[in-house]
Amino acid sequence: MSSSVAPFKKQQYSDLKRDCVKNKKLFEDPEFPANDSSVFYKEKRFGIVKWKRPGEITSDPRLFVEGINSHDLNQGHVGNCWFVAASSCLALKPKLWKKVIPDWEEQDWDPKHPENYAGIFHFRFWVFGQWTDVVVDDRLPTVDGRLIYCHSNSKREFWSALLEKAYAKLYGCYESLRGGKAGDAVVDFSGAVCETIDLEEEAFYKDQEKQNHLFEKLLEIYNCGGIISCSIKAEEHKSEHKMSNGLVKGHAYAVTAVKRVHLGHGPYPRTKAFPMIRMRNPWGYKEWNGPWSDRDTQGIGGWHGRDPEPGVANGTGSQMSTPMPPTSTPSSPGLNNKQKDLNLEGDDSLSEST
Asked: 1-25: per-residue pLDDT in tens?
């Protein structure tokens, strides 16, 4: 298996940046121009799209603000929750994201040496058995001064928006990212092999033993550094329909933790452990509202407002913890590292009854 890196469109990042710095100009990518052809291939959904550099959006842009984490990504106006969910998972794995975002310190803005900034970035994806280096300029599509696609909670942070732009360039345009599977994006981020488990077809809801075995498999993959995401099947006319439990049909979620949680109080002894999975909604809002959620005033074990295991229990923002998950997608870190991905899918009946 090749370990070399192939330049996408024959664009060499180091050469292009050196020329821009030498000539004191900001990079403008001729292979992915700042016009509608890079946004749409068929459907025009917005008004006037203006491309702006981060320095035109905020006075102090950064690639990362206070590090990188799964909360840095919020889905924009394109149906690519699968990509955003996979990117949220990526943010939890330093060894992986440092492959996808190489030399990130060199790429970041340096306020002490603004003359070294050239408006150019590069990201790497696993394409047809080889790492491929994709160069982009820093011009991002906006409407009314706001980013219309993936964005961070911090207006100063741009790694997620630039990563999405590079991925859109790889696939042709932003609109081409509409609809997909999180497992496919994880493969592109890692070179991993993705395994999909269909919870509906394999009738997990009928067999407690199979559910227990599945959780043990998820736990093993998570503890081995795996990446896990979730999705719920939906008919086309019901896609993105919010169910009564707060989950959304036809939508992908990132799994950010898999653990057995010990309450150690209330009616449950310390020896009682609940199989729990924490998920994050790429939208940045709408979350599970059943047992263990922020809205659960009683709490299944009477622990409302407590966190028996820090970082796992109660939901924060768009993160949520649920008992054994309705649907999931696990994966472990690149095929080149003998990595394995696992993608699980279920239908709405599983989620509604959880």
From this structure: 456 899 999 999 999 999 999 999 9
Residues 6 or more apart from 19 whose CB is under 8 A from it? none
**pLDDT digits over 231-260, tens only?**
887 666 555 667 787 787 777 788 888 988
Active-site hit among 74, 80, 81, 343: 81
Residue 206 and residue 151 in one domain: no
Total-model pTM: 0.77
**Beta-carbon contacts of residue 236 (< 8 Å; ≥ 6 apart):** none
Report the alpha-carbon distance of residue 72 to residue 58 in Å, rounded.
17
Task: State yes or no: is 251 an active-site residue.
Answer: yes
CATH number at residue 232: 3.90.70.10
Residue 81 annotated among the catalytic residues of the structure? yes
The closest of 110, 79, 111 to 175, measured between CA atoms, is 79
Give the count of alpha carbons within 13 A of 111, CB side only.
6
Phi first, then psi: give them for residue 257, nearest 5 degrees: -165, 145
**Is 194 considered catalytic here?**
no
CB 197 within 8 A of CB 294: no
First to last CA, the chain: 43
Whole-angstrom distance, CA of residue 198 vs CA of residue 342: 11
Quote the domain boundaries for residue 68: 5-180
Q: Which residue out of 20, 251, 314, 343 is catalytically annotated?
A: 251
